[in-house]
Write a sequence for this structure.
């Protein structure tokens, strides 16, 4: 059968004269094969195959070689005959022949990378043995295989030993012959590069380097929102060339609109402008547009930008968050917070140009202010007396206390900050906050929330003036390092030559004109660095002020009486989200405070005092939230106060006394643990309660409970029932201070902590989206209230001397508030408030049980209205300064004080401005001061002018 296959007539490869000649040689070869003349047959078969290649002829060539016992050649031709064969009989015959010859030959299985290379044995001049991959049959021995492929360097193997009856694999890798093309781009950071086929696979992403075969190639460029024309390059083998392509942006425009102006717009997380705006040259393609504004929930949309077209992204509805962090020490809705809260929006702060914290608090529900021209202070719901330095109110910067450890003073005037530009909002919490903050939060908490992490990178500088005398400047920056990583910092300075003031003196001519009142210089810096859950914040501020107003029995009009306050704070915080249910807060802080005072008395006597305080603290808090309706917080903190020192020397005619009249050191420590639970069993009911235990080294343990029930009886309505107990530890100053008997002597031993039991009810009804009406009532029972009381009989006749002492009679405070407020939306806001409060001693023997200096009536109106959107807005604030009872039994007169401002933004120049007049009616009102002043009341500012200009970039 095999012979029949071998000698079958060959198929004609092509129909011309060559076919006849090929057929002739085939017939001659077949005849010679049948006669056993195999060499002659081989000659004719090869000639026939050369004239008209045919697998059947190749098979007969292999048979002739086999008959001649030239087995390697026969093996090779059988392999060639098998390649591409489709006839089953022929395939079976070739495979059988190959198997038959296998024991008689040595086989080299040659493969190349890439495949298709021409294969040579030992020398190229002997001719090719075919293309790899293929088996090569050879006589046993040592061989060197050579491979060549166009476009690649030739490759040769090491000598390979071929063994009879065995197959040996020979693998060769060929190195491509290429040239290098370095591709650079301008106009965009990167572009995809394709070679020779615009729709083909990406060869690299420029800037990059390509390895290409020699010759001419076309390069195509593409990218997200960019395009460039193709470039042809001529690649030379083994040489490098460079090509730079200018990328052109495929851009369109995007119209972004909100009802709120000044909202930040980002495109793919990159700041692009502020609303309302048309964003030009936005790269074509799908883009993520995000609009964010302080105090509002951000809104994101994905749009498709088309080249040369304007896309209307629609109106972004920014919903106010109405959140507070100071109540429970995490961000929560005001309606859910278990306290009475007012938020002073940053836009309100800027519209009125408030230079200090105390000015921002004017007209806030439950707040009454005073300024004895040494320090400004605030009383919350009637809790605040002259000479307490605001030590019942805790002032925070992003949750870190700023009160000192000597007086626990709150520093809300120019002694605390000379600038509020970095303050995003101020949270005012009325009522005791000792549950989470300890001793300092006796009557309320004021928390300054500083710059948002979402603010774009930029710098700002500004100058301004207020009180007709103060010149101030500021500068700062905000720098992003990436998502949720960055740093901001600012610095400020202020200086005043003071002003003239008519002071109603208690002795001598009255009133007396005192010059240089509130002449001061101040400066400071604040900032924050953040990296994910880690935060580092700092504050430094110093103010030195002349106080010629006869404070503490000093000489009235003597400008040498000066007070200097320096406050430093550094806090590190780490707040990781451990899991969906657990969050951890760990923080540590370091603080320092110094006071330097020179008291100039008549007759050339001076008191020189220095107070120093240094303290460190740490806190750890774990929050468990298995779901949105339950939150449990447990935590503890400890503080170490290694330095709490009061030092005073008398100086007579420039000679300092050797022995100090005041040298008191009272280092102390305390630790505290607290737990707080918040539960919402149903959507209309929220329960909150907690306890705290503080243990002081100075007076022992104090237990503080507080609870709240929040009911939402109707859509938009919130009813809060709140109550609890709080305390305030007496400060080191109250316990130990004396000034050699000139105005004050040391407190009696055993000064107790103040205790308060409070309850309040508040109902808020929201309507028309942005409006809220509120009514509230509150009551407090205070024991061991610390007051300055006169020393009887006086040490020196005619000279009032006081000491701090616990009031033996409890104090009852009751009050009620009503407020209507239109939240800040679409560039305007409105609020009107009235409050009544009465504080009295629970002593029937007193002819007039009212607590002095507490105004019974509080009322205010505030409004900001846009005249020209963004460019011009008008602000009006009116506050009632109600009569205040003096210790003499007299009362201060009532006055209505109005402030008018004009503010706006010139966006194309990056400028913001405020100009205004405070106390536009020049109403001369007074507040009470302590009995150690040379006056019983201190006149407050009449008409003053304000200007503030800030430039930002970009």
């Amino acid at each position: 059968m095999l012979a029949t296959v071998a000698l079958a007539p060959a198929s004609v490869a092509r129909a011309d004269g060559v076919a006849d000649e090929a057929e002739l040689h085939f017939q001659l070869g077949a005849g010679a094969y049948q006669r056993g003349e195999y060499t002659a047959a081989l000659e004719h078969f090869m000639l026939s195959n050369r004239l008209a290649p045919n697998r059947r002829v190749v098979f007969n060539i292999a048979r002739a070689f086999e008959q001649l016992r030239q087995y390697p050649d026969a093996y090779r031709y059988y392999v060639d005959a098998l390649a591409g064969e489709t006839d089953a009989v022929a395939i079976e015959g070739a495979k059988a022949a190959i198997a038959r010859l296998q024991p008689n030959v040595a086989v080299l299985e040659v493969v190349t990378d890439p495949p298709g290379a021409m294969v040579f044995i030992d020398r190229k001049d002997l001719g090719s043995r075919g293309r790899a991959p293929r088996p090569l049959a050879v006589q046993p021995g040592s061989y060197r295989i050579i491979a060549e492929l166009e476009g690649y360097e030739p490759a040769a193997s090491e000598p390979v030993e071929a063994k009879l009856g065995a197959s040996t694999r020979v693998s060769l890798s060929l190195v491509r012959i290429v040239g290098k093309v370095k591709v650079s781009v301008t106009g965009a950071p990167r572009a995809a590069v394709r070679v020779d086929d615009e729709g083909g696979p990406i060869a690299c992403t420029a800037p990059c380097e390509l390895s290409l075969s020699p010759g001419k190639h076309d390069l195509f460029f593409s990218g997200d929102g960019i395009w460039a024309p193709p470039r042809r390059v001529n690649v030379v083998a083994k040489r490098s060339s460079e090509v730079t392509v200018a990328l052109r942006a495929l851009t369109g425009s995007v119209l972004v609109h909100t009802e709120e102006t000044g909202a930040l717009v980002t495109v793919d997380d990159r700041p692009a402008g502020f609303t309302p705006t048309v964003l030009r040259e936005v790269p074509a393609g799908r883009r993520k547009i995000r609009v964010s504004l302080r105090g509002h929930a951000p809104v994101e949309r994905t749009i498709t930008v088309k080249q040369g077209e304007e896309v209307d992204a629609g109106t972004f509805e920014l919903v106010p968050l109405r959140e507070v962090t100071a109540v429970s020490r995490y961000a929560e809705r005001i309606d859910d917070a278990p306290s009475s809260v007012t938020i002073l929006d940053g836009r309100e702060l800027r519209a009125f140009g408030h230079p200090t914290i105390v000015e921002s608090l004017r007209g806030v529900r439950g707040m009454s202010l005073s300024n004895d021209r040494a320090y400004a202070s605030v009383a919350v719901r009637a809790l605040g007396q002259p000479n307490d330095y605001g030590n019942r109110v805790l002032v925070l910067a992003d949750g870190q206390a700023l009160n000192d450890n000597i007086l626990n003073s709150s520093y809300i005037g120019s002694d605390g900050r000379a600038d509020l530009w970095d303050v995003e909002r101020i949270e005012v919490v009325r009522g005791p906050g000792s549950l989470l903050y300890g001793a300092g939060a006796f009557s309320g908490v004021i928390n300054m929330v500083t710059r948002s992490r979402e603010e774009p990178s930029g710098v700002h500088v500004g100058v301004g003036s207020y009180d007709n005398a103060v010149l101030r400047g500021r500068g700062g920056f905000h720098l992003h390092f990436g998502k949720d990583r960055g740093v901001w910092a600012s610095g400020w300075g202020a200086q005043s030559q003071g002003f003239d003031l008519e002071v109603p003196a208690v002795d001598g001519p009255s009133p007396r004109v005192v010059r240089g009142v509130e002449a001061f210089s101040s400066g400071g810096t604040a900032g924050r660095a953040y990296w994910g859950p880690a935060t580092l914040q700092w504050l430094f501020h110093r103010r030195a002020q002349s106080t010629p107003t006869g404070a503490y029995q000093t000489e009235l009009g003597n400008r040498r009486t000066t007070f200097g306050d320096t406050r430093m704070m550094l806090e590190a915080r780490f707040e990781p989200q451990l899991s969906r249910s657990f969050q951890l807060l760990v923080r540590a802080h370091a603080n320092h405070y110094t006071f330097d005072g020179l008291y100039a008395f008549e007759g050339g006597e001076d008191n020189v005092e220095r107070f120093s305080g240094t303290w460190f603290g740490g806190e750890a808090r774990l929050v468990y939230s298995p779901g949105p309706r339950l939150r449990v917080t447990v935590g503890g903190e400890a503080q170490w106060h290694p330095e709490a020192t009061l030092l005073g020397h008398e100086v007579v005619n420039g000679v300092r006394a050797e022995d100090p009249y005041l040298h008191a050191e009272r280092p102390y420590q305390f630790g505290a643990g607290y737990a707080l639970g918040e539960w919402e069993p149903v959507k209309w009911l929220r329960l909150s309660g907690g306890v705290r235990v503080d243990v002081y080294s100075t007076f022992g343990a104090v237990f503080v409970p507080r609870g709240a029930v929040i009911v939402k009886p109707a859509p938009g309505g919130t009813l809060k029932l709140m109550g609890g107990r709080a305390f305030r530890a007496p400060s080191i100053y109250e316990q130990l201070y004396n000034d050699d008997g000139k105005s004050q002597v040391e407190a009696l031993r055993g000064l107790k902590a103040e205790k308060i039991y409070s309850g309040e009810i508040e109902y808020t009804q929201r309507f028309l989206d942005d409006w809220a009406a509120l009514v509230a009532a509150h009551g407090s029972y205070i024991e061991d209230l610390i007051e300055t009381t006169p020393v009887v009989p006086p040490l020196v006749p005619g000279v009032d001397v006081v000491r701090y002492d616990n009031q033996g009679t409890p104090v009852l405070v009751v009050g009620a508030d009503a407020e209507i407020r239109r939240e800040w939306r679409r560039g305007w806001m409105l609020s009107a408030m009235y409050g009544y409060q009465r504080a009295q001693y629970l002593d029937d023997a007193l002819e007039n049980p009212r607590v002095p200096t507490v105004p019974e009536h509080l009322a205010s109106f505030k409004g900001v209205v846009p005249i020209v959107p963004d460019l011009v807005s008008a602000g009006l604030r009116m506050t009632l300064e109600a009569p205040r009872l003096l210790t003499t039994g007299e009362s201060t007169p009532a006055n209505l004080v109005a402030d008018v401002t004009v503010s706006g933004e010139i966006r194309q120049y990056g400028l913001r401005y405020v100009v205004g007049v405070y106390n536009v009616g020049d109403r001369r009102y007074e507040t009470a001061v302590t009995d150690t002043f040379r006056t019983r009341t201190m006149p407050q500012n009449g008409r003053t002018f304000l200007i503030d200009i800030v430039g930002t970039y970009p």
The chain has ten helices and 62 strands. The chain has four domains: 2-173, 179-249, 254-316, 323-953. The two ends are 93 Å apart (CA to CA). Residues 1-5, 10-15 have pLDDT under 50 and may be disordered.
